[in-house]
Amino acid sequence: MNQFQYVRATKPQGAIDAVAKDPTAKFIAGGTNLVDLMKRGIMTPQKLVDINRLPLAKIERQDKGLRLGALALNSAVANDALVRQHQPLLALALNAGASPQLRNMATVGGNMLQRTRCSYFYDLTMPCNKREPGSGCGALEGINRMHAIFGASDKCIAVHPSDMSVALVALDATVLVSGPKGDRRIAFADFHRLPGDTPEKDTNLEAGELITAVDIPDGPFTKHVHYQKVRERASYAFALVSTAAALDLDGNTIKAARLAMGGVAHKPWRLTAAEQSLVGQPATEASFRRAAEVAMQGAKAFKHNAYKLKLGPNTIVQALRTAAAA
Amino acid sequence: MKAQQKQIGAPMNRVDGHLKVTGAAKYSAEYELPGLVYAVLVGSTIAKGRLTSIEAKAAERAPGVLAVVTHYNSPKVPGYDTAGKDPSQPATVGGPIKIFNDDKIRFNDQPIAVVVADSWERARYAARLIKAQYAKEAHQTNLEDNKPQAFLPTSAKKNPKSPMADYQRGQADAYKTGAIKIEGEYVIPTEMHHPMEMQSITAHWEAPDRLTLYDKTQGTLATRRDFAKEWGLPEANVKVIATFVGGAFGNALHSWPHESAAIIAAKVVNRPVKLMLTREQMFTQVGYRPYTWQKLGMSATPDGKITAITHESIGQTSTYEEFTESTLAQTRMMYASPNLTTRYRLAALDIGSPIWMRGPGEATGAFALESAMDEMAHLLNLDPLEFRLRNYTDTDPEKNRPWSTKFLKECYKLGADRIGWSNRKLKPGSLRDGEWLVGYGMGVGTFGAHRGGAHASAQLRPDGTVLMQCATTDIGPGTGTAMTQIAADTLGIAPEKITFELGHSDYPQAGTQGGSSTVNSVGPAVQQACLALKDKLRELAGAQNPTFASAKKEDVTLGDKHLSLSSNTAARVPYSDLLKQAGAATVTVEAKPGNEGQQYSMYSFSVHFAEVRVHELTGEVRVSKLVSCADAGTIINEKTAANQMKGGAVGGIGMALMEHARIDDRFGRYVTKDLADYHVPVHADAPNIEVAFVNQPDLKVNALGTKGIGEIATIGVAPAIANAVFNATGKRVRELPITPDKLV
After folding, report:
1. Beta bridge partners of A5
2. Minimal Cα distance from B658: which residue of A?
3. Which residues of B touch A123 (CB under 8 A)?
4. Per the domain annotation, does A10 fall within a domain?
5. N or C: which end of chain B has fewer CB within 10 A?
């Protein structure tokens, strides 16, 4: 096997130091993605810094919001009473992802940092700019039915696979990180990147920065929410397209809306223009359909994923419909 | 003595169930031998061309590495000179391709080297250090592009009566002139078997000319034959052990390159070598259901009588083997069409060889035929079940002879009642459940009730228990359990007293487990071995008690500790006396079919009814109800048989809705390389599947009356679901799988 060093961190600063000074080091939490990538030789860290013992697993009330520790397990978050009470959309999104076994291992921070599932990224013999910058994008002219319709570049058309992140971007979450230069807060929408010319960078985290928590502000989205995930089997599959929808209704009038899509871009795709188009409108099929049309502006399909141009808006309508009826 | 409860038909628990669920059952990867070392394959990264160099030095110097074998340094495999000269031989006879023999690359991921090390991790690490250079040649991996080059299989060229040859009754292509006709093209993409257990082999040269293989195989004797031939050894010098097989669905019906590699590696390092395939290698090393294009035309009279069918197909094969399957068989015999034409062709691609996958070609063909039946019924505005009844045949229209038995009408009745067929509307898109469109569909399946010769042995032990042995394997249907039930009834003793051992090439000979033939073939051998044992015991007892000498074997009763006679319970001989004198009481018998197969057409039949829900916006399909009914002759074990039907139906759901191995033709390489990309159904995809059996014996097949279940469990399921999707939505999907992108 590839030899690597394994150290267990007991304090956040120790973990940050260990990774900051060694460019070949990686944090490991649940390892549900990293270990697979290491087995396949796609990621070959020389050092693993195990952060599972760090005290970052709490889910707690903060001023006007919820704080999820970066090491809180996906299953713990999905089943947490506070989460279900204040942010039910997040629980729905989490439960749509992976399998119970994986959710019992995967953490909040790790879920955000999972790599794309693009087949070309996973095959060392095929071109992939994300894995090997400059080698080309295999998917661009290849089998691209799972790929992006928004924000892609000619360097990379991969999508981010997380369901949880789709809900978090819709809910205006903030990512808390600690690093060699201190602590900072990153708006969730700015956390993941579009591929541009540097698809090897999935996020705006800097070297040695550790995610410590995610804050979600309280909002009115405690009832009319839905996470609609369309996949090729009933469970345990990545989304063809997914939509997180949250509505604040006054009678049948939409006071506020949140919408984001998964399976369509290199990052969880927030649909602010479509949200705006819903404000003040009645919660009807026609309003939802109009919002879906707004949402799809600028979408561009490749050879095998043109179906997403139709499935995308339909999924938005279905998510809004279900949220309104919830 | 109280009569034993009848075991045949009873829902007996699996005899090895406890071993399996507790992890005590030993699968091929779990044998630990002294001095065992590990091998990992290195695959080519091009689909066609030549190897110009292999840089192995770094791997050879890596820690723990014992050997790196390539075509540059492989020992000469004696059988390579003679093997595989005739590509038209069935795949199982052709044996594996000759790996490490030359520089030729025939498919992507073809093994070009095997690394042996003292641990699997070290072997895998070293395997990644190997670098190869190639002279690439243009490859072909797309069947659609290669349809113009499709050819008649060699077996059909040699023998015009071959089932692969062109077939015609009545007028050729008569449907074209029919007034009411349909015509459509159907595609089944490449599908992968992916049993839970991945292929694994431990090869052990116990002496320079004695080889033992702990191997995942469906046929211990076929594997023995192939590797005895490859190494120029007498078959008696090769031992193959496959006590437990964790599913296979056909992919262990062939001898594969990784098996050759392990044997070569074991020869080189002169130690036992274990080689386990990864899930990724399962896509490239052990076969698949071939991508198949079909075209079916059909004409009918206004009152629903089929007047002509033409069914053509082009299946994928490799460049080094001609793999054929019976894609068009069901079309030739299922419906009473006076004019019928079938044409079967192959297209050779630069991909490894296919191998039969559950239901094999019949399941592929049934998708086209049973979809077309639905299309024609729709055109005629007829209920599809009624349309099938109007074209039902009481004799085989292909061979012009009687069926041995056929209870398909009974199956229709059983299934239609259970699914609630009367709820079905003729007009598509008529039924709804909220946002879900609801539809009903049916599909028929059939498969030959094949039977081959088989041997079995039976031995009475002094404690009154019976040991039975047979070389057959059990890839999951519960063969040992069914055989124990047959033996228990025949011997008149409790099943707990019987041990049925299988999966070892030293045991009495039997065929490979495949083609739904095991119970048909081995069942009679077990039955006859038990009768022979009774007779042998009667004879032995006769030496001590003359009453036995004149008794009939049927009267012989096996008690707890002694032998007696049902006609004379006073006559008793203790086993201890019986066996003290004789040493042991063992019989081995062979049971063979007669010429019934020439007089009758023998088939199992099934019908599957599906209720589906299709989401109006997302195009997701959920099978909400599935009913599978079979005419499979006598059911030996109601529980394992139903389990087999349900497993086959789940396979059919996968075929209908999600299974699709995709190749990027630019690289000639699969992009679906794990079970996250290649979807098989999860529990949530399977409804509660209802199974019903006609359970009428077919005594033409054998004295037990069995016909076989394995294939008909899958054949016809995919079209039932596709037809239900049409009924729900009015959309006819002729290219599987029916994923949301095709319905949205």
Report:
1. A47
2. A232
3. 669, 671, 673
4. yes
5. N
pLDDT value of residue B96 = 65
Q: Does B3 score more than 70 pLDDT? A: no
- What residue segments make up the domains of chain B, in order of their start? 28-138+198-245+252-283, 146-190+288-450+598-743, 452-592
Q: Quick one: fold of B452-592?
A: Aldehyde Oxidoreductase; domain 4 (3.30.365)
The helix (H) or strand (E) run that includes residue B577 is helix B575-582
Contact residues on chain A for B667, CB-CB shorter than 8 A: 125-126
What was the pLDDT predicted at A194?
Answer: 98
Query: Could you tell me the fold of the domain covering B146-190+288-450+598-743?
Result: Aldehyde Oxidoreductase; domain 4 (3.30.365)
Are B344 and B135 spatial neighbours (Cβ–Cβ below 8 Å)?
Answer: no
| Contact between B664 and A234 using a beta-carbon 8 Å cutoff | no
Q: Residue B50: its pLDDT value, please?
A: 98
| pLDDT mean over A220-240 | 97
State the CATH architecture for B28-138+198-245+252-283. Answer: Alpha-Beta Complex (3.90)
Cross-chain Cβ contact A237/B125 below 8 Å: no
B305 close to A (CB below 8 A)? no
Partner residue opposite B45 with nearest CB, options A117, A125, A143: A125
CA distances from B670 to A43, B247, B364 (A): 21, 23, 21
Collect all residues of chain A within an 8 Å Cβ-Cβ radius of residue B744: 307, 310-311, 314
Tell me if A125 and B128 make a contact (CB, 8 A cut-off): no
Residue in B128, B618, B669 nearest the CB of A311: B618
The C-alpha torsion from B248 through B251 and B252 to B257, rounded to 10°, is: -140
- Is B344 in a helix, a strand, or coil? strand
Domain coverage including residue A270: 224-325
Work out the minimum CA distance from A46 to partner chain B, whole angstroms. 14
Answer for the pair B1, B569: CB distance below 8 angstroms, yes or no: yes
Q: Is residue A272 part of a domain?
A: yes
Tell me: the pLDDT tens digits for B247-300? 999 999 999 999 999 999 999 999 999 999 999 999 999 999 999 999 999 999
* CA pair distance B255, B248, nearest whole angstrom: 13
* CATH number of A296's domain: 3.30.390.50
The Cα–Cα gap between B37 and A35 comes to 25
* B146-190+288-450+598-743 and B28-138+198-245+252-283 share a CATH fold: no
Using a CB-CB cut-off of 8 Å, the residues of chain A touching B685 are: 233-235
Cα–Cα distance measured from residue B387 to residue B407, given in angstroms and rounded to the nearest whole number: 17
What value, to the nearest 5°, has the Cα angle with vertex A259 and ends A256 and A263?
Answer: 175
Q: What's the token pair of residue B565? A: 């006679």
Residues of A in contact with B128 (CB under 8 A): 41
**Contact between chains at B671 and A120 (C-beta distance less than 8 A):** yes
Give which of A33, A135, A143 to mutate to test B binding, by max B Cβ within 10 Å: A143
pLDDT over threshold 70, residue B620: yes
pLDDT at position B1: 39
Establish whether the linkage from the previous residue to B687 is cis, with ω within 30° of 0: no
The Cα–Cα gap between B13 and B45 comes to: 47
ipTM (interface predicted TM): 0.97
What CATH code is carried by the domain that includes residue A36? 3.30.43.10
Residue A117 has its nearest CB partner, among B122, B676, B740, at B676
Among B194, B278, B664, B742, most A C-beta atoms within 10 A, so best to mutate, is: B664
CB contact, 8 Å: B2 with chain A? no
pLDDT digits (tens, 9 = 90+) for B18-53: 999 999 999 999 999 999 999 999 999 999 999 999
Q: State the residue for tokens 């039969």.
A: B356
Domain assignment present for A295 = yes
Which residue numbers of B are catalytic? 711
Report residue B674 as tokens. Answer: 């794990």
- A74 lies in some domain: no
